[in-house]
Amino acid sequence: MTQRRKVRWLIAHFPLELFVRAAKAFEEEIEKLCPGQFDIEIHTMNSWLNWYRDELTEEQYAALGFNAPKIANLEDPSRTGGAKHHKTFNDLRGHWQLMFDLLKQQKFEMSQTQINIVGSHLDSKFHAVDLPYLFNDHDHVSRVLDGEIGQDLSDKVAENTGVRALGYTYSGGFRIIGSTDGIECLNDLDAKKFVSFTSPSSMMFKFANVKHLPRAYTTAQDIGDMNEEGGAIETTYLRFAGKNVLKSNHSMFMTAILTSEDFLATLTEEQRDAFKEAAHRVAKVERIWSIEDAEKYEQQAEERGVKIVDISKDDELRLRAAALQVYKPQNLARMGIDGEIVKQIIAKRKG
To answer: What is the pLDDT of residues 202-231, one digit of tens each?
Structure first.
């Protein structure tokens, strides 16, 4: 009897249940395609560090053995574990670069990681799919990411970095603005400390004259101020632990199922094709699950004491006008975004 090959899948984000769900779905799909050949071993950061401590140097373990500080009133603290406060979130750059190095070294073989993280710490081409108001709807996302554009993006990044996106997922859906207290419009953010999450969003809020603090430069003191005085954050329904939402739906919270080119090279051609097909299947169904999760969140909002305010037409136009500034070639270049990829994505819109 042939022994199953172990494949370690590392979950590095929250909400944990969303990422475990996707990993288990991949496990089921790869078993259908390659029965009896693989054992998908699903880990959180803590379990992986505990199980494979001996494979890391002291410096690597020290760099990975912490969680970033979270905004307790806005991002669910029960999902984050202990926090070691660094000067700013930008100090995590070495953490994520090490994570991608360890993926390429096959210390773990697969992960599902935020596109924002991949774009910031591996290859800025990925920032393209984080652009505000890029996708008209979920069908537009599928046409782009499940087609030639998504494949071309994966190929280019794999060639440049040695890391390949096998599939594109949501893990949350549209981005919204969550607040510790009431929020009715963009102007309400003037009185709050508002943390923007991505480079493209931060640029949009800047052009829209919305007072904000880019997450990369958020300090532990900023977090303390927000917890004591109230604040707001660019987030998604399922990452948000507060009770006040401005439903802006200004961009898509995207993640990617990642592996390394070196790992794929150890597989047979049939197995490589199976991994790509399994990830493709999981990505499609995961995006459907995320849409359903968002619908359920809205249906249950009132009974859970959550107030969701639809962004006004005037505020939406204000953000859309600012987004057009983000799309200017010089601004895309500043973020390392390939303007040709953006044109191709826009060309896939309908209507």
So the answer is: 999 999 999 999 987 887 666 666 666 678
Whose structure tokens read 């969701």? 308
Q: How far is Cα 30 from Cα 271, in angstroms, rounded to an integer?
A: 9
Residue 222 makes CB contacts below 8 A (sequence gap 6+) with 193, 195, 213
| Domains of the chain, earliest start first | 5-347 (3.40.190.170)
Secondary structure string (H, E, C) spanning 178-246: EECCCCCCHHHHHHCEEEECCHHHHHHHHHCCCCCEEHHHCEHHHHHHHHHHCEEEEECHHHECCCEEE
pLDDT tens per residue across span 64-99: 765 444 444 444 433 333 334 445 555 566 778 899
Amino acid identity at 276: K
Q: How many other C-beta atoms lie within 10 A of the C-beta of residue 201?
A: 26
What is the number of other CB atoms lying within 10 angstroms of the CB of residue 250?
26
Grouping H, G, I as helix, E, B as strand and the rest as coil, residue 131 is coil
pTM of the model: 0.89
3-class DSSP state for residue 56? coil
User: Is the distance from CB of 131 to CB of 327 less than 8 angstroms?
Assistant: yes
Q: In sequence order, what are the residues at sequence separation of 6 or more whose Cβ sits closer than 8 angstroms to the Cβ of residue 157?
A: 118, 122, 123, 125, 126, 163, 164, 165
What CA–CA distance (Å, rounded) separates 190 from 167? 38
